[in-house]
Structure formats: structure tokens, C-alpha cells
């Protein structure tokens, strides 16, 4: 309860501001329409009209919630208007990309920690790689993947992986280097090799770092999947774009909130796994 | 059956009804074809898809096809189901635009990505500069919808007769409050929605045969769609994976599309081609093609398909 | 074929040289510059050779040489786009967003209630995909750089806020208790202890935000822009298959983004010189 | 008249003091029924096993913790009032210097906060740096100094603003025996010179006996005072005093007190 | 025959040993001209002020640092060979238990690495846990134990695989006096029982005198040995021995040695 109350308060404040902004931003259209029709609107009429438009500049919260509700509960989940249907398509790409990206990130991190040349050369370029506007690459990547015969989900997953590997590399390099000199020396007095050190010391002690980066990584993965869907027929990304294409602001906002909710759930999910893992490893107190 | 992959220029909508109808009505199957239709979108360049081998045949507009040809991608028009152009500028009357002469010092929304050339050409014939200098027009790269007009961020935006125009209407603006300039009527129209393949493939008799059957079935689809617009619209809806299209909108779109395909039996009219090339060569400041292309179209397929 | 063999050989040789250099003189400043440079050159050479070897069409992926040539011949255009997108859009949005985030963090610092409410909501907002936010911002703030800046503000605000709030509680208890024994006021404690102690965290946020800013501005241009800017150029060129120009813009974006990141890292070095991670 | 009154008033007075922490696994009695009187000029040591509440008691005196029962007065005021009157100089177990300030900057920090004039600040910094033998190190950053030097800097910082009461929580815990011996001597000298009231926490029996006029032996669970020993040693104490019979006897009494209060499990 | 030879060979032998660190501000002579012989069954303590090279010397013996001059042999081999033969049990200053392993898991760690059979591992864990009085704590995680218990666990870990040579770097530095006393007693008992060779680093004079058969006094800059004291105390040592005349005398000699080598600056 005392964790929920502050959140609810903030949400309530945002909703109030939001309604205000909706009136403010949608108002000009109401006035223009009235002017074109040669009538005047005022008072409650005006406010009411700002919140019931089909194509508002800013949909009022209840419109978005209705959009979400229609998309989630108002449709069969196999329907193409169902947000669950599209969410699932996005999720599958997100998860596949996340697995690839995380695997790649961990491998790279292990390489960086064990190989000085990789350490020096990979990092600056990994940073530079993240500066590339992925949305510009996505269509070209789709073409290349297409010509290689890969399916849509793989293309999406590659973009996801591309965005999620970076936080994993950064976090894991930190994590794998987190054992202090004494912990490393201890294994040396046992005359343990690098592989043993990795398995018995570096990997376990990197777990908190790993989970922290997994949380960032899964959110990045989702963004990647959505960007990858801009040129695919289905998924939340496609929904966002078609909403934008037809000026369906409510559809955009509903898809937007569906995506953010999914991200939040994924992060919470990883948090759960983290708690369980760390507890089983005895690292959660 | 022979596999054919068709890449569309835009998302699934009645603009491409002929192909969806042909598939749904079994016209392709009857020709022994197994056709995969790939929807496009703002993020898809059909020319690039075909260059990468992702499609056998693409729907594209002639300006971008010719530009690609000059860049070294030998695309050939094998059929032209669209006789006329649906592009226009739609302006709010209250912005004070009544004739093209009023464009000066106004902000105009334009689609880029290969669609800007007819517009630039038009402006240069009007003698209006597009670089933002005084007395010219301010050009916006418009997004995917008509919001700039509704929000009065632009005096005019690009629309298609069959689509965006109706979005403006749907938004609640009466037709009397709008002024439209059809490219067709302004004499700056270029050919839209044609079928293009790679030149090298045409030499292969098997491919040629496939395309003959494809074009024949596609045209059958188009004519069926013209005759049965409501059924065609429903077929389009059934094929839309985003679930964003509505049947009302697609019916109306189908009706408008039928006007554009009406004059065509599928074969490219050489005069239309020549007009398009002339427009593009005249260009604006930065012409899209620098020399008249050769071999950019053929009747090889339609001759066989339509006999 | 020979191009492919060349690529493999070049890669192996460069890798060998790098391994040797890193092992023998990994601490030397010049070697630390040389190794990543050679790595970058290797990537470019292998890219070029693979394209030549597999005869990849330049319409699919142009070779680095063509990109370089285009880059060199289009400098004025690229510069104009960089000014529009980076300096006007990304940078102003970055400054506004980061500045606002730090101020808000200080403002909510005294209220644990607000913090507990704002941070989860903030994380939720941060998870909103920009491709969804960008068209909305274009609708609200118009086509010019202001809407790009707005997208950047939204993107950078929460990472910086979260890090700053974390940083403000990063001073350890003993350090805070010291302030208490001296009878320091809230503002004295903030100014002399908690802000300096928060700097490593704030810079962490600033660096994350730095990787987001330019991308956000470019992406926003996909949803409407004047006829200049990096995102505009990329969409306009795709229609005429100007892949070399697109890649030139991408190269400029990567370069400018990395330079910006480097600059933040440099300032961080100066400001948090005292932090163990900066002392090695 | 007022002065004499102050002189007679105890500097620190605790009556039936109790302090209970509410933790996840239930309440922890960190202090229970603590009675203590400290007079002006006393050098008091708290000694006891880990967890017996030494730090907690010291923090309560400095108003860093708030007692849950009993009364605690400092100079006749509440500890919080005394804190706001800047009565305390507190030296923590670790040096706790701010790494972004030089040594001089660290020492200046409380002076800035208390609003001393700029040249007064400089003068005092110079003065205390000399006192702890760190002249010439003012411009160095904390991490450029050895642990012992950092500890001395933190003592200098606590001395700089001339608080009446010096609270020191195991200030020499991290130092080696020789350095510790020397700092013990210095601390005694300083105390003799300034006649401050010093409350000192330590683990070390010799240290407690060597330094204190009053040794408070504590024992844990719940934290309480088991013995208060008034030292018969003279105020001037050379290091050799540690080999004297009196010294060894007090040390023995402290050790016995400690052992009695010490349970086996840790 | 071979056995006798081994018996007579010194376990650790350093001749003119030097070790210089290359640092940013130039070379640091951590050890200079160190000569030392340790026989089988010796209990050797290194004592000296901070920075005099105690840890460095211990690390060199364990092949964790490499001497830059002189020779160092362990059981007649180089330290590195001895390390690969798993001759060392090393106890670090802090307990250094891996927090994600239980106490038993921590003790098992070296056994896993050295490839002991599973039931042999269990047996040994049980055995050493008993030895350090931690039966029943095997399933606990390190943070569930007090500091002293953790330290004992880390000693158990070093004992589990029965290395000949036990190297202990200030193992009791972080503990309070009472716990420390008890662990000192336990260490002596253990040593008596197993007849291992133990090398022990400490800051504390009483600790060094109480435990050792040989006390090595070191001094800094450059780190060198200033005195080696062979203790006349008997092998059995009750705690009370610390009040004996012999004890006090050795302690005095150590203190003088330390003071001589101690420079003022830190
Ligand atoms: N903030 C706190 N919350 C809960 N329990 C606390 C807190 N601070 C201290 N304690 C508990 O109060 C008791 C006394 O702690 P205190 O730190 O005063 O001991 P100490 O005598 O200073 O020990 P040490 O010699 O180890 O420093 C301990 O049991 C400790 O766990
Ligand atoms: N890795 C290193 N690089 C450079 N100098 C070092 C290194 N390790 C130790 N030194 C220096 O070598 C000298 C001896 O250090 P060492 O750790 O052996 O001292 P010590 O006697 O163990 O001190 P303490 O009692 O503080 O642990 C010191 O001056 C130290 O600064
Ligand atoms: C980014 C982008 N914007 C607009 C068009 C133009 N366009 C071509 S077909 C079509 C469908 C009409 O409803 C439209 C709008 C494009 N190709 N790409
Ligand atoms: Mg304490
Ligand atoms: Mg040491």
C-alpha cells in the first residue's frame, strides 16, 4: 500500500495535467470547426468536444484507455485489431533478439575481459555502433535479410539484438571485472586456470551487473523489435505506423501504452528472475 | 505452380485491389502461379527490394523507377494498370490559396522518397523557388498523414485522390472548405503504380512466361475489382494484417482507384511514358534523371498477355 | 575469391599486430590509440574486400570507398544537415532535457513520497518507444528542429533524472552525518556534499542520454521535417537509391555521436577526477 | 557567575537512556538503561565488544540518533540544540574526507558552513594542519595521502572550529601500532592544551587505559554500561606509563569487565 | 631417505631478495636485500609498520608477486612450482569468502578446483568446520555470520586441502580484542596439532610475540628485515603467558625494533 500510494498520486497528477493539455491542444480544432460551421461553442460544450474527437491532437486519458480496452478485451485475440495479437508478434521478435543480443554481449564481454587487444579495440567501436540511427539501417537490413531468405522475425530479432547487446557488454565487462584482487589471488594460490576463474569467480560475481543490464537490454530489445516492425505488416510497430498513417491518434497512443506496458512487464519479469536467482545464490539479503 | 513474389509500394489498401482480388479469386492459381504479395510502407523502397532479390516484380511509380535505372538498377516497366495519376495538392481555403499563383510564400507539404519530383517539376514550371527563399514556397517533408493541414502547419499538403483527401474529409472539413490541384489537371502528372522487373530476367523465357501469366491474371483481377468494388474492398480488408483499415474507407478508395485504372488495359501508353520522361528531364533545380532512358519499358509481356 | 582471401589474411594480420601491440605496450598512450584505429581500418578493409569478392550490388551495400568519396564530395550538404539535426535539434534538446532532469531531481529530492511515485512512472514513460512519440511531437511542435528537440527532451529526461536521484543519495552516511554535526543547512549539504557526490552518477546519466540524443533527433525527422537534416536526407535519398549518401550521413552521425560522447566523457574526467574509476 | 554555573554543570548527562532500533527482524535494543555523567575536561573512553552500542551512544550524544527513552542533556540542552550551537567536533572511524576537496578544502568545509571569514579560515587551516603535523599537505587530495595521514586530517577538521566537545569513534582503528601510539600521545597533548571534553570509542584496552580519565565498559545485547572506572593515573602520561603497575591493574580490570560481558558466539 | 632430506631442507629460503614495483611516479622498492630461512614447523610472524613490505613478502612466497632480484625457494623449488604443486594455504586480511557460496561451498571451492572426489570433499569440509568450531554453520551464507566467524571460515578454507605451508596476512586485523585472543589460542592449537609451517603477518606486537617461534621485524622505505627474534617461549602457551617477564621482554625488543625502523612522516 505505501508503495502504491505515491505512484497513484503521481499518476493522478499526470492524468489531471493530461486532461488540461487535451483541452488546450484540442481546443483550436474545436474552434476552427465551429468557425467553419459558423457557430460558437463555449463552456462545457467546448470542453466536452475537446475530449470526444476522432482524431484529437492529444487524446484524453479515457479515450486512450478505451482504445487499450478495445484492443485488449474487445477483440478475439486472433483478430488483427487485437493488441494482444500484435503484442505477441512484437514479443516473439523481442525475446528472440534479446536472447541473441544477450548471448553476443556476454561472449564479447568475456572476450574483452580475457583479451587485451579486444579490450582496447572493441569498446570505442561498440560505442560508435550505437550512434548509428537504427531506423535508417532497418529498411536496408530488411532487404539484405530478405535476399538471404530470412523471415521477418529474424530481421526484427537482429535489430533487437543490435540494440540490446551494448548494455549487456558494458554491464558484463564491469561485472566480470568486479572480483577484487584478493578474490582473484585466492584462486591463483589454488593454481586455478582462466576457465576455472571465469566459472567459479567472474561469472557468479557478475550476476548483479548482468541483471541490471538485462533490464536495460530487454527494454532496448523491445524498441528494436518495434523499429523492425515499421516495414512489416503486423506487430505493435506496424500498429503505431498505421495509426500515424491514418492520423488515428487514439490508435497510436493505445499501441504506445501497450508497448510501454509490455516493457514494464518484461523488466518486472527479469526483476523476479533476478530475485529468485540471487536468493538461490545467497546474494539477496 | 510457379512462385512469384510481388512487392507493393505501400501498405495493403484498395490501391492494390487488383492483385489481392486476383489472388483471392483464384486468377493466379488458374494461371498456375503461386503469388506472394508483400505489403510496402514508408520504410520500404520497392527498388531496393527487387535489387536485393526479395521480389520478382514490384509496383512502383515511374519517377523512382527511372531514377533507380539511372543509378544502375535496370528496371523495366512491363505493365501499367494505372492510366492516370491520383496525386494532388489539397489546400485549406482559409489559407488563401485559390490558384497556383497563390503558392508563393506558402508552406506546402510534400512526400519525399522519390515522390517529390513531379512536385519540384511543377514548381519550376510555375517559376517558384523551393529553396526557402522569399517569393518561393517553403517545402515540408510531410509525414504519413494529413495532420499538417489539419493543424494548419501547412497551407497545402500532398494527397491522393483515393486516400489522404478522404482523411481530410473524414476529419470533419467540408469539401467546400478545400481547394485541390490535381497533377493530372495541372499537366504535371507522372505515371504511377506500374509493374517493374529486372531487365536481365526478361531474357529468360521461363520468367517471361511467368510474367505473361502474372500480368494477365492481375489485369483480370483489376477488371473484376472495377466491376465489383465492394467485394474488392472486403478482400483488401481481409488481407490487411495491421487491422487498421476500415471497410467504408476502402470502398470509397476502390471507387476512386477504379477511375484511375479505367483507361488502362495494362499496356503502357507510349505517349504517357514520354510525357513522364519529359517532366522528369525538365526537373527542377536537381533533375531526377539527366538523360532520356532507353529500354525502360517493354510491351513484350503485355503483347502476349492481352492478346 | 582472391578478395575474400585477402580479407581473411588482412584480418588475421591486423589481429596479430593488435594482439602483439596490446600485450607488449598496452599502457602506452599511442598504442591505446593505435589498436582501436587499426581495428576500425580492418573493419573497413574487410567490408570493402567482401563487397568486391561477393560482388554485392552497391544498391544493397556500397563499399566504404564509395561512401568516403561521397562524403568528401558532399561536405557542405552534410554540414548543413549536421547543423540542423545535431546542433539545433539534438543539442538543444539534450541541454534542456538534462538541465530539467537535474532540476527536477533536486526538487523531488526532499520528498521520498514523490520519488517513490515518480521513478516507476518515469521508468514507464522512458519505455515509450520514440517511434511512437516522434510523430506526436511533430504534430505538437511543428516541422522544424523544435519538435526534434522535444523528442530528445523526452528521451533524455528520465535516464538523467533516475541517475541524479540515485546520485543524490549516494553520499555515504558518515559524510552526511558530518554535515549534521556541523549544523549545516539543507542547501549547504546539497551544494557542498550531495551534488559533488552525485556527479559520477549524473555523468553516467548524461552519457546514456548522449547516445540517445542524436538518434532521437534523426528518427524524429522521419516523421516530418523541413528539407534539410540528416533524417530528411536519408529518407529523400532512399527514393533514388542514393545509398552512398545515406551511408555518408550514417558515418557522419556515428562520428558526431562518438565525438559528443567523448566530449562528455572528457568533461566527466575533469569534474569527477577524484572518483576511483578515474584514477586507475 | 554564569561561567561558574556552566563549570559545575555536567557536560553530558544521560539518565536511564534507552535506544531501540526497529528493524526488519524486530526491535534491537542498542542501548538500555544507560546512566552516565561526563564533566567538563573529562577524557572518557567507551570500550566493549563489537555491537555493544558504543557508536550508538556516541551518535546519540551528537544528536545523530534519537533516544527512545530516558533523558540525555548536553550542556544542559538537548543534543539537537547543542548540535545547532555547533558544540561538537566528530571524528568518525574512517577518515571520511570528501575526495573532491583537497586536505585544506576539507578542513575549510565546516568553517565555510559556519560562516567564518575567509582569512580566519586560512589561518585556522594553517594552524590545525600544523597541530596534526601535516604542514605542506594542504594542497594534496585525500587519496594521495596514507591512511594515517588521512586520519590525522580528519582530526584536524574536527578541531578547526574549536568545538567544546570532541567525539571520536575509533579514530585510530585502522592504524598500525606505532602510528597509533604517536597519535595517542598527540591526542593527550592536545587535550591537555585545550582542556576540551573528549569522548572516545575504542576496541583496544591499552588505548582506553592510556588515554582516559574515565573508562566506560559496555556489554552487548542489550547494549548497557557494566562498569565505569575512574582512572587514578596522572594527567601527564608518558608512553612508559603503560608498563606501570597501576596501568596493568586498570587494564586487568577492564579486561575482566569485557570478558564477563562477552558471549561466546562471536 | 628422501623424507629426511626434505626434513632438513628449509621450507622457505630467501637470499638477497629484492622486489621493485614500477609505478607512475617511478620505482618503489617494496623489498630490499631480504634474507630469511624458515624451517619446517616454524611459526613465523612478520611485523612492521604499514607499507614495510610484509604483504609483499608473503605474496612473493606464494608466487603472487615476482621478485626482481635475489633468489627465493620453497621446498627447494621456485615459488611458482610450489604453487602449482598446491603447497600453499593463503588466508587474506579480510575473510574474502565468496558471497554466493555457503560456508561449506566456500570451503569446498579449492577442493573442487583441485579435483578431490565428492565424498572426500564432504568429509574434509566436515572435518575443518569442526576444527574451527563452526559445525552446523556449513549451510549458512557468509553474511549470516559475524566477522569473527567469517574469519574462521576463511581459515578453514585454507586448511581444507592440507597444504604444507599456511600463509596468513593479518587474518585477525578486523576483529576486536576478545575475539582476537580466542582465535589466537585456536591458531596455536591448530598449529600444534598439525605441525604445519605458518607464516603470519600482523600489526600487533602482543599477537606476534604470543604466536611465533620466530618474529621478523621489518621496516619501510625500502622494505627490509631489521631484526629476527627467535622466541624462547615454550610451544604450549596459555593466554596468561602474556603477563610473564619473558613475554614482556620480547615485546619490548620488538617495540624497540619497530620504533627504530619507523620514520615520522606517516
Ligand atoms: N541503524 C541501525 N538500525 C538497526 N540496528 C542498528 C543500527 N545501528 C546499529 N544497530 C545495532 O545496534 C547495536 C549496537 O551497534 P553499534 O554500532 O552501536 O555497536 P558498536 O559498539 O559501535 O560496535 P563496533 O565496535 O562493531 O563498531 C548492534 O546490534 C547493531 O546491529
Ligand atoms: N602493486 C603494487 N604496485 C606498486 N606499489 C606497491 C604495490 N603493492 C605494494 N606496493 C608498495 O610496496 C610497499 C610495501 O607494500 P605492502 O603492501 O607489502 O606493505 P605492508 O607491510 O603489507 O603494509 P600494510 O601493513 O599497510 O598492509 C608499499 O610502499 C606499497 O605502496
Ligand atoms: C514516405 C512516403 N510518403 C509518401 C509516399 C507516397 N505514396 C506512394 S503510394 C501512397 C499511398 C497513397 O495512399 C503514398 C502516400 C511514399 N511512397 N513514401
Ligand atoms: Mg562502532
Ligand atoms: Mg599488508
From TrEMBL, chain A:
Keywords: Cell membrane, Membrane, Transmembrane, Transmembrane helix, Transport. Coiled coil: none annotated. It is found in: Cell membrane. The chain crosses the membrane at residues 7-25, 88-113, 125-145, 157-176, 250-271. It is a multi-pass membrane protein. GO terms for cellular component: plasma membrane. This is Binding-protein-dependent transport systems inner membrane component. It comes from Rhodobacter ferrooxidans.
Automatic annotation (TrEMBL), chain C:
It holds the Pfam family BPD_transp_1. It is found in: Cell membrane. Its main location: membrane. It comes from the Bacteria. The chain crosses the membrane at residues 29-47, 91-109, 121-143, 149-170, 201-225, 245-267. Residues 100-271 form the ABC transmembrane type-1 domain. Signal peptide: none annotated. Keywords: Cell membrane, Membrane, Transmembrane, Transmembrane helix, Transport. This is Binding-protein-dependent transport systems inner membrane component. It comes from Rhodobacter ferrooxidans.
From TrEMBL, chains D, E:
Keywords: ATP-binding, Nucleotide-binding, Transport. InterPro entries: AAA+_ATPase, ABC_transporter-like_ATP-bd, ABC_transporter-like_CS, ABC_transporter_ATP-bind, P-loop_NTPase. It comes from the Bacteria. GO terms for molecular function: ATP binding; ATP hydrolysis activity. CDD domains: ABC_NrtD_SsuB_transporters. It holds the Pfam family ABC_tran. Residues 14-241 form the ABC transporter domain. The keyword Disulfide bond does not apply. Belongs to the ABC transporter superfamily. This is ABC transporter related protein. It comes from Rhodobacter ferrooxidans. The lineage of its organism: Bacteria, Pseudomonadati, Pseudomonadota, Alphaproteobacteria, Rhodobacterales.
Amino acid at each position: 500500500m505505501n508503495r502504491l500510494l505515491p505512484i497513484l498520486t503521481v499518476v493522478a497528477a499526470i492524468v489531471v495535467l493530461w486532461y488540461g493539455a487535451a483541452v488546450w491542444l484540442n481546443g483550436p480544432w474545436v474552434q476552427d470547426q465551429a468557425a467553419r460551421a459558423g457557430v460558437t461553442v463555449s463552456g462545457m460544450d467546448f470542453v466536452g468536444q475537446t475530449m470526444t474527437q476522432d482524431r484529437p491532437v492529444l487524446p484524453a486519458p479515457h479515450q486512450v484507455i478505451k482504445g487499450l480496452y478495445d484492443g485488449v478485451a474487445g477483440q478475439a485475440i486472433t483478430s488483427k485489431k487485437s493488441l494482444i495479437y500484435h503484442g505477441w508478434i512484437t514479443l516473439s521478435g523481442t525475446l528472440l533478439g534479446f536472447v541473441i543480443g544477450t548471448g553476443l554481449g556476454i561472449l564479447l564481454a568475456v572476450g574483452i575481459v580475457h583479451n587485451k587487444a579486444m579490450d582496447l579495440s572493441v569498446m570505442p567501436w561498440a560505442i560508435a555502433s550505437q550512434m548509428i540511427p537504427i531506423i535508417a539501417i532497418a529498411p536496408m537490413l530488411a532487404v539484405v535479410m530478405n535476399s538471404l531468405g530470412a523471415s521477418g522475425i529474424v530481421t526484427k530479432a537482429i535489430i533487437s539484438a543490435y540494440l540490446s547487446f551494448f548494455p549487456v557488454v558494458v554491464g558484463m565487462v564491469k561485472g566480470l571485472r568486479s572480483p577484487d584482487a584478493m578474490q582473484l589471488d585466492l584462486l591463483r594460490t589454488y593454481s586455478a586456470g582462466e576457465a576455472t576463474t571465469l566459472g567459479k569467480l567472474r561469472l557468479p560475481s557478475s550476476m548483479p551487473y548482468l541483471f541490471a543490464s538485462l533490464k536495460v537490454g530487454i527494454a532496448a530489445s523491445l524498441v528494436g523489435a518495434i523499429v523492425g516492425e515499421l516495414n512489416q505488416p503486423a506487430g505493435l510497430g506496424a500498429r503505431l505506423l498505421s495509426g500515424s498513417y491514418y492520423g488515428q491518434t487514439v490508435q497510436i497512443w493505445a499501441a504506445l501504452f501497450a508497448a510501454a506496458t509490455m516493457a514494464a512487464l518484461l523488466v518486472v519479469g527479469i526483476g523476479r528472475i533476478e530475485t529468485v536467482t540471487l536468493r538461490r545464490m545467497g546474494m539477496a539479503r | 505452380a510457379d512462385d512469384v513474389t510481388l512487392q507493393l509500394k505501400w501498405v495493403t489498401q484498395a490501391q492494390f485491389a487488383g492483385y489481392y482480388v486476383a489472388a483471392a479469386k483464384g486468377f493466379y492459381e488458374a494461371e498456375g502461379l503461386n503469388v506472394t504479395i508483400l505489403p510496402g510502407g514508408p520504410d520500404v523502397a520497392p527498388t531496393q527490394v527487387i535489387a536485393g532479390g526479395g521480389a520478382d516484380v514490384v509496383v512502383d511509380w515511374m519517377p523512382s523507377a527511372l531514377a533507380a535505372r539511372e543509378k544502375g538498377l535496370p528496371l523495366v516497366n512491363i505493365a501499367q494498370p494505372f492510366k492516370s495519376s491520383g496525386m494532388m495538392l489539397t489546400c485549406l481555403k482559409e489559407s488563401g490559396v485559390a490558384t497556383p499563383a497563390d503558392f508563393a510564400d506558402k508552406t506546402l507539404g510534400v512526400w519525399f522518397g522519390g515522390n517529390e519530383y513531379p512536385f519540384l517539376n511543377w514548381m519550376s514550371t510555375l517559376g517558384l523557388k523551393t529553396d526557402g527563399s522569399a517569393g518561393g514556397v517553403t517545402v515540408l517533408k510531410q509525414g504519413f498523414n494529413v495532420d499538417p493541414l489539419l493543424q494548419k502547419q501547412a497551407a497545402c499538403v500532398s494527397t491522393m485522390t483515393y486516400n489522404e483527401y478522404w482523411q481530410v474529409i473524414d476529419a470533419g472539413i467540408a469539401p467546400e472548405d478545400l481547394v485541390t490541384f490535381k497533377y493530372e489537371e495541372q499537366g504535371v502528372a507522372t505515371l504511377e503504380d506500374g509493374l517493374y522487373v529486372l531487365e536481365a530476367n526478361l531474357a529468360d523465357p521461363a520468367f517471361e512466361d511467368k510474367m505473361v501469366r502474372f500480368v494477365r491474371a492481375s489485369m483480370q483481377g483489376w477488371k473484376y475489382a472495377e466491376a465489383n468494388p465492394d467485394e474488392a474492398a472486403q478482400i483488401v480488408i481481409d488481407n490487411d494484417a495491421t487491422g487498421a483499415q476500415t471497410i467504408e474507407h476502402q470502398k470509397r478508395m476502390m471507387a476512386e482507384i477504379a477511375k484511375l485504372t479505367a483507361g488502362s488495359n495494362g499496356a503502357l501508353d507510349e505517349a504517357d511514358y514520354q510525357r513522364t520522361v519529359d517532366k522528369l528531364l525538365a526537373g527542377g533545380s536537381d533533375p531526377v534523371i539527366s538523360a532520356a532512358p532507353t529500354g525502360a519499358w517493354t510491351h513484350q509481356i503485355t503483347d502476349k498477355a492481352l492478346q | 575469391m582472391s578478395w575474400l582471401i585477402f580479407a581473411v589474411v588482412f584480418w588475421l594480420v591486423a589481429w596479430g599486430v593488435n594482439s602483439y601491440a596490446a600485450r607488449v605496450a598496452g599502457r602506452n598512450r599511442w598504442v591505446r590509440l593505435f589498436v582501436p584505429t587499426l581495428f576500425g581500418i580492418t573493419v573497413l578493409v574487410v567490408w570493402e574486400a567482401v563487397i568486391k569478392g561477393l560482388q554485392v550490388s552497391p544498391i544493397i551495400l556500397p563499399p566504404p570507398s564509395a561512401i568516403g568519396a561521397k562524403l568528401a564530395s558532399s561536405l557542405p550538404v552534410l554540414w548543413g544537415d549536421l547543423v540542423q539535426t545535431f546542433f539545433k535539434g539534438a543539442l538543444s534538446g539534450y541541454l534542456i532535457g538534462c538541465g530539467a532532469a537535474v532540476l527536477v531531481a533536486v526538487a523531488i529530492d526532499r520528498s521520498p513520497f514523490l520519488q517513490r511515485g515518480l521513478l516507476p512512472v518515469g521508468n514507464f514513460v522512458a519505455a515509450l518507444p520514440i517511434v511512437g512519440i516522434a510523430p506526436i511531437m511533430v504534430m505538437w511542435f511543428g516541422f522544424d528542429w523544435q519538435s526534434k528537440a522535444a523528442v530528445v527532451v523526452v528521451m533524455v529526461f528520465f535516464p538523467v533524472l533516475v541517475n541524479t536521484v540515485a546520485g543524490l543519495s549516494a553520499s555515504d552516511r558518515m559524510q552526511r552525518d558530518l554535515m549534521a554535526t556541523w549544523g549545516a543547512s539543507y542547501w549547504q549539504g546539497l551544494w557542498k556534499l550531495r551534488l559533488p557526490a552525485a556527479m559520477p552518477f549524473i555523468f553516467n546519466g548524461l552519457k546514456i542520454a548522449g547516445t540517445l540524443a542524436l538518434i532521437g533527433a534523426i528518427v524524429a525527422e522521419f516523421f516530418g521535417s523541413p528539407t534539410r537534416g540528416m533524417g530528411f536526407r536519408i529518407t529523400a535519398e532512399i527514393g533514388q537509391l542514393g545509398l552512398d549518401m545515406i551511408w555518408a550521413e550514417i558515418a557522419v552521425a556515428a562520428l558526431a555521436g562518438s565525438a559528443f560522447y567523448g566530449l562528455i566523457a572528457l568533461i566527466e574526467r575533469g569534474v569527477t577526477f577524484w572518483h576511483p574509476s578515474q584514477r586507475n | 557567575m554564569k561561567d561558574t554555573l556552566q563549570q559545575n554543570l555536567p557536560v553530558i548527562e544521560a539518565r536511564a537512556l534507552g535506544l531501540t532500533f526497529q528493524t526488519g527482524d524486530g526491535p534491537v535494543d542498542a542501548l538500555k538503561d544507560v546512566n552516565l555523567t561526563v564533566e567538563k575536561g573529562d577524557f572518557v573512553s567507551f570500550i566493549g565488544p563489537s555491537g555493544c552500542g558504543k557508536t550508538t551512544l556516541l551518535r546519540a550524544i551528537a544528536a545523530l540518533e534519537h533516544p527512545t527513552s530516558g533523558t540525555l542533556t548536553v550542556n544542559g540542552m538537548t543534543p539537537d540544540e547543542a548540535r545547532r550551537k555547533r558544540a561538537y567536533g566528530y571524528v568518525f572511524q574512517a577518515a571520511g574526507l570528501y575526495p573532491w576537496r583537497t586536505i585544506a578544502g576539507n578542513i575549510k568545509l565546516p568553517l565555510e558552513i559556519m560562516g567564518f571569514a575567509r582569512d580566519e579560515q586560512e589561518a585556522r587551516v594553517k594552524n590545525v594542519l600544523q597541530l596534526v603535523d601535516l604542514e605542506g599537505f594542504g594542497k594534496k587530495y585525500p587519496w594521495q595521502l596514507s591512511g594515517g595521514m588521512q586520519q590525522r586530517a580528519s582530526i584536524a577538521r574536527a578541531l578547526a572550529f574549536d568545538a567544546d566537545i570532541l567525539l571520536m569513534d575509533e579514530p585510530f582503528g585502522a592504524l598500525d601500532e606505532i602510528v597509533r601510539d604517536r597519535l595517542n600521545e598527540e591526542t593527550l597533548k592536545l587535550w591537555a592544551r585545550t582542556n576540551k571534553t573528549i569522548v572516545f570509542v575504542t576496541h583496544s584496552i591499552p588505548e582506553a587505559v592510556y588515554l582516559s580519565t574515565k573508562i566506560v565498559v559496555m556489554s552487548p545485547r542489550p547494549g548497557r554500561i557494566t562498569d565505569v572506572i575512574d582512572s587514578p593515573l596522572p594527567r601527564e602520561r608518558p608512553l612508559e606509563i603503560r608498563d606501570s603497575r597501576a596501568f596493568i591493574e586498570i587494564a586487568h580490570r577492564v579486561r575482566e569487565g569485557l570478558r564477563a560481558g562477552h558471549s561466546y558466539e562471536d
